[in-house]
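Good morning N.,

You mentioned wanting to compare the apo and holo forms, so I went ahead and generated the holo version with adenosine-5'-diphosphate. This is what I fed in:
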Amino acid sequence: MALVMDEYGRPFIILKEQEQKSRLRGLDAQKANISAGKAVARILRTSLGPKGMDKMLQSPDGDVIISNDGATILEQMDVDNQIAKLMVELSRSQDYEIGDGTTGVVVMAGALLEQAEKLLERGIHPIRIAEGYEMASRIAVEHLEHIAHKFEFGVNNFEPLVQTCMTTLSSKIVNRCKRVLAEIAVKAVMAVADFERKDVNLDLIKVEGKVGGKLEDTELIYGIVIDKDMSHPQMPKQIEDAKIAILTCPFEPPKPKTKHKVDIDTVEKFQTIRLQEQKYFDDMVQKCKDVGATLVICQWGFDDEANHLLMHRNLPAVRWVGGVELELIAIATGGRIVPRFQELSPEKLGRAGLVQEKSFGTTKDRMIYIEQCANSRAVTIFIRGGNKMMIEETKRSLHDALCVARNLIRNNSIVYGGGSAEISCSIAVEAASDNYRGVEQYAIRAFADALDSIPMALAENSGLPPIETLSAVKSQQIKENNPCCGIDCNDVGTNNMSEQNVFETLIGKQQQILLATQVVKLILKIDDVITPAVY
Ligand code: ADP
Ligand code: MG
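and this is what came out, ligand included:
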């Protein structure tokens, strides 16, 4: 696109390769954008809440994913429209920052767009709508601080944390085992948390999965589990008080026989070179033994001859261990990664109380457990489950739960879930709208209506009549002045979310409202869409 002037100084726009571009301007552009955004939100709407539906997605190469997580669903969907991509980004940013609430944020943005469409039809300028939304979002975020509670928990009393993680997990496929998984997630986060800095490095929590067993068999291991086995089946399966050499250098003799051109014309010469090779490796093994290593974990492989020698010299080894895993092992065992063999020294060895190889099922599935490490600040959650899809979804759900626990350690404020916080904000925003004289007050009221769409979706997904349920809960909140009343999705018999123990983090909820508002403002401000035409 270029802006040029004619000879009288009147500006006009030249679209490059005019006929190949399509262009939407003004209200048409906004309406088209809004309907694209709404379409994405509509897909996720049915996934919200404890009774939300799951989506099954097939990737181009035939892999099937079943998920309830908003960010995952959108990530896997192949959206083409630019605005729809913005919604995908929205969900992703919630995932990056908070981890949970990825469905809710998109549903919220969809509702805001829907309300904006009505206002546009009534002739209100998009900028005024955007400004009104901005004001309303500030009111809502502030109101959330008023209704938030501080949550007291300690290293020994982490039950409240478990309850919050259970709320997150209750909307996932794994909700059958939510208690077990929530406890695991909380214990894992507690193990790696830095309470002084109020931060948690989730990289220290490794999540492994193996098909087989039951979901209930999922366990937390204070140490590292790697999906590898001892390089030789006759090596010991259990090493106590292990001293581990962590190598990222080749652990095998040089191979002049195959790698270089050597003239070997006699049997004797061949024998010499073979013996030399063997001696070279023997020296390497001896060096490991001299520094005191009882286990070698190696990023590279070694061939069968070397493997045999290792077995012979009684030095157990694990080969082909990935870089990330090596780092975790180094952190957990307090060892140092050795990049050059010459640098191996006793103080660089990692220490673990127990290293063992465990086997699973009837197939030759083995894994190595490195436990009782010198520095226990790296843990592994080892998931079992009926099939791969289940394990993958459990990993994603656990990610949400881990994030929620981390967020609570960073900031221990919570609000009540089940749509109660949204209803309370909606009432507050509605009340505040009267203080604004300008056209913005329509937008602020529209914002209040959009907030209602979250409890409405929750009710709808649980098979309750949406409008009746919402209005009943809303009037109850006003009558009792109680911001804990929400939608009783599971038909427990009470609307009080504090009795039901349905909590969400304050920062998560605030982030949802802020992000959704930002994206909607962004979409409303676009009044010219130039795209390559479709052929
Ligand atoms: P998201 O990806 O946005 O976290 P979820 O599918 O996890 O979406 O649904 C979260 C919503 O479900 C929140 O509004 C939460 O308050 C609500 N919710 C979760 N568990 C319950 C419950 N037991 N009763 C009522 N509402 C619940
Ligand atoms: Mg959730």
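The mean pLDDT is 87.

Happy to go through it together on a call whenever suits you.

Best,
F.
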